[in-house]
Amino acid sequence: MSQARLVDQKWWGILILLGATVVLAGCGSFGRKFNQALPDFLRSDPGADELERYQARIRVLNRSKEETVQAKKAFDEAKKLFDAGDFESAAEAFELYLEDYPDTVNDRLARHLQILANIELAEDVDARKGITNFVRLYPISELNDEIEESAWRLANEYLAGKHSWLIFNLERDGITLLRLIVTNFPNGHHADEAQWKLGNYLFDDDNFLEAEAAYRTIVERYPRSVWAPRALFNQGLCRVALCKGPAYDQDNMYEGIRLFQRYLTDFPEDERRAEAKEHIAFFENTLASKQVLIANWYIGQGHPGAARFFLMKCLRDWPKSQAAEEAKEILAVLPDWSEDKFFEKLKEKGGDAPAEAPAPQGGGDGHGHGHGV
Fold first, then answer.
1. Is the pLDDT of residue 6 over 60?
2. In this structure, what DSSP letter does residue 360 have?
3. What is the 3-state secondary structure (H, E, C) of 195-250?
4. How confident is the model at residue 173 (pLDDT cuts 50, 70, 90)?
5. b/e string for 130-150 if b means 16 or more Cβ within 10 A?
6. What is the pLDDT of residue 143?
7. Which residues pair with 165 in a beta bridge?
8. What number of other Cβ atoms are within 10 A of residue 224's Cβ?
């Protein structure tokens, strides 16, 4: 399918969604559920301008004593509804309270209780907005643990598909909340597990570099976490996934070996040791194959001496690899350009260096490099 056709289909889809939003937005609970299921940029926000003007009019920089008493009464009534389990009425009461009396001494608690009420009502969009606004307004608060707990609960609901609806998968909203947790509550109760889930999501999404960064954060910041062994192992898995073969970046392979070797050293009792050793062997064989690949290129260019160098490097650094056996086979038919053989040929030619590499011959040469001269 052409790129232009894909773009056209995308825009037609957006237009259809916009039309459905307009039609269904006024259809009671169905319209509300449809609106919440839409991506953020398509969700309607009725009354936003009116709310902003209203809030601008009631700024309480000089709030009177009577208003302070009224604000306390409004908060107590909303909290009474919440304590009674009437979450729908409580959520509406807290909404009005925060509109009429922002910036009171009970502002933080009111926002927190409103978040909890919306979670109980499965009003995930309102709950998520409440959490986002809370951490924006109060990055440091005595309610940090409670807000983190609410964000964690809602994130897991999203990831479990609880709030997905029809064709709308809202899993990414859960990922957004995981990012909020690891960013705003790095020392919280769920920070390490949030990083773990975030890393797994990124890994499954083939975003291996970001996934490794998430796993690395666990290893470096939370070394005593129950997720630390698996996180270190999964860092290595990211490097396995990034390895495209012997022709590609060898730094990635060396890093993979380092990570798996560290895993074997740091976690000697963990259950994935056998797999880690297999991955190390894979990287070592790939690095060895790279030397054979280079050697074959030099042979093709007519430089057997340079080829011998890389084949010998393969045998020296990775003698137990599969590629080492191939290197031995190639060395067996290459001309020998060792130092002793070089001067021997030089003497035979009366002091002149050999113009060309001698043709392969049978028989051993005493240097352990295979057969030929």
1. no
2. P
3. HHHHHHHHHHCCCHHHHHHHHHHHHHHCCCCCCHHHHHHHHHHHHHHHCCCCCCCH
4. very high
5. bbeebbeebeebebbebbbbb
6. 95
7. 168
8. 6
